[in-house]
Amino acid sequence: MKYEAVIGLEIHAQLLTDTKIFCGCSTSFGREPNTQTCPVCIGMPGVLPVLNRKAVEFAIMAGLAMNCKIAPYSRFARKNYFYPDLPKGYQISQYELPICQQGYLDIEVDGVRRRVGITRIHMEEDAGKNIHEKDSSLVDLNRAGVPLLEIVTEPDIRTPREAAVFMRKLRTILRYLGICDGNMEQGSLRCDANVSVRPEGSEGFGTKTEIKNINSFRFVEKALEYEINRQIKLISQGESVVQETRLWDSSAGKTYSMRSKEEAHDYRYFPEPDLVPLEIPREWVDEIKGRLPELPDEKKTRFIKEYSLPEYDAEVLTEERTVAEWFEEAVRLGGNPKKVSNWMMTELLRLLNEHEKEITDIPLTPSHLVKILDLIEKGTISGTIGKKVFSEVFLTGKDPEVVVKEKGLLQITDTSELEKMVDEVLKNNSKEVERYKKGETKLLGFFVGQVMKASRGKANPKIVNELLKQKLSES
Ligand SMILES: [Zn+2]
User: Fold this and answer.
1) For residues 473 and 384, what is the distance between their CA atoms, to the nearest angstrom?
2) 264 shares a domain with 374
3) Ligand 1 ion: residues within 5 Å (CB)
4) Which portions of the chain are predicted below pLDDT 50?
5) Cα 157 to Cα 146: distance, rounded to the nearest angstrom
6) Do residues 105 and 63 lie in contact, with contact meaning Cβ atoms separated by under 8 Å?
7) What's the longest Cα–Cα distance across the chain?
8) 397 and 433: one domain?
9) How many angstroms is it from 43 CA to the middle of ligand 1?
């Protein structure tokens, strides 16, 4: 029997507002514990929450970007449970009337397009953080009251890979909108997954388990793979899956049971009496819609059309808004789109990765890249030297021409100097010369490579090519 998985995700995204959702405390990360707090967010009796308008605006932006209906009337609800990091004894969330509903996102996996339904997006406040030490536990309430979006998908996802692609796409969109930094390590984007299995092609649903606290894209895939295999094995052995919440242990590569359905909370939701229902005028939604940035899918389509880029290039360049803007700036300054794209996708992304930098924190500018391309085009430097110059400018921000002069990287175009090198290479590789003359003409590339190596990348490859062809056809 073949099985297929049915996966739904619940994603928590921390919003990038300056202040918390129901008070004026700062949301900045990494401050001294309990310094970003006030009577409202530490849950003192008698205080009243006041809704942060920016958080609502961000929720509307997310809803529009994910094709949701924005509810003209929604309501906050109390989710009651006791935990040391939740001093009020309840979390203010939304329950039966969330702000956004019935949206979708399209994803593409191995060339196949799939639509994943978004059931709802609602706003809520984050809890604080418990820090467990050897003999004691401490509570930091700096995070208590930071605004969150909870994004819930329909059970439309079928494979761990699709789940990971969906998460990436969601993160890209949130970052484009500038409403969440998407940092999974710091917990500003967190994912829970509901998963069950059923015989392939059947319609019903099997018993599902929920995997909590998955904190990287890689773990989304791994945790789901493990859990799907675990469930299939149970069912194949005639046993049944127990409905429960499981945790992913990344070091063991396993999920383990956290609590069963019997132990599950009854949150006793009821409408939050301290906040009026949220009424959102249509004009406000339209106004927000009017200033949404171009989203990744639209940008990708435009890049393909406007710059004749291959789909792959357009996909890579539009994954981050800042990278896409860097590309467009280089093209605007006269760079050839495909050349700019090649350099960005290979050299630039490699260096950013290597130095763990964002494109916004480097001294290298689009204008530098255009200058380097120009120097190569004019034959002042070779492509290989261009890469060296690029790495240098990446670190120092120096003018490419200055780097070329300082490092003595000018291209060798003097024919007599190049001829000496060519002769030397032919002399040292007499066997290859013979083979070439017997018709193995593809060895030309080998000779060019040897000359380039001898000149430490400075020889003009065009002249070297001509000289080699000439010399090899002579004697
Ligand atoms: Zn506060």
Assistant:
1) 27
2) no
3) 23, 25, 38, 40-41
4) none
5) 29
6) no
7) 100
8) no
9) 9
User: Ligand 1 centre from 49 Cα, in Å?
Assistant: 9
Boundary of a domain, candidates 370, 385, 406: 406
Give the distance (Å) from ligand 1 centre to CA of residue 147: 12
pLDDT of residue 215: 84
Mention every residue, 6+ apart, whose C-beta is less than 8 A from residue 195: 5, 6, 7, 8, 208, 209, 210, 211, 224, 227, 228, 231
Cα of 173 from ligand 1 centre, angstroms: 29
Beta-carbon count within 10 A of 265 CB: 10
402 and 361 together in one domain: yes
Question: How far is the C-alpha of 54 from the C-alpha of 147, rounded, in Å?
Answer: 10
Same domain, yes or no: 331 and 365: yes
Ligand 1 center from residue 188 Cα (angstroms) = 19
Confidence (pLDDT) at 260 = 72
- The answer on 226 and 169 residing in a single domain is yes
C-alpha 130 – ligand 1 centre gap (Å): 18
**DSSP conformation class of 442:** G
Contact between 92 and 275 under an 8 Å Cβ cutoff? The reply is yes
- Residue 37 C-alpha to ligand 1 middle, in angstroms? 4
3-state helix, strand, coil in the chain (%, to 5): 40, 20, 35
Query: Identity (one letter) of the amino acid at 92?
Result: I
- Taking the CA atoms of 252, 11, 184 and 318 in sequence, report the sign of the dihedral they define: positive
Q: What is the 3-state secondary structure (H, E, C) of 203-258?
A: CCCCCCEEEEEECCHHHHHHHHHHHHHHHHHHHHCCCCCCCEEEEEECCCCEEEEE
Question: Same domain, yes or no, for 449 and 397?
Answer: no
Examine the domain organization and report whether 280 and 331 are in the same domain: no
Residue 285 vs residues 29, 275, 297, 387: alpha-carbon distances, Å:
30, 21, 21, 48
One domain, residues 169 and 278: yes
C-alpha closest to that of 265 among 79, 440, 391: 79
pLDDT in tens, 392-442: 899 998 898 888 887 776 777 788 888 888 888 988 888 888 888 888 888
Total domain count for the chain? 3
Residue 301 CA to ligand 1 center (angstroms) comes to 43
Residue 440 lies in domain: 415-474
pLDDT attached to residue 475: 58
Residues 350-370 have pLDDT tens digits of: 999 999 999 999 999 999 999
The per-residue pLDDT for 385 is: 84
- Three-state DSSP at 157 gives strand
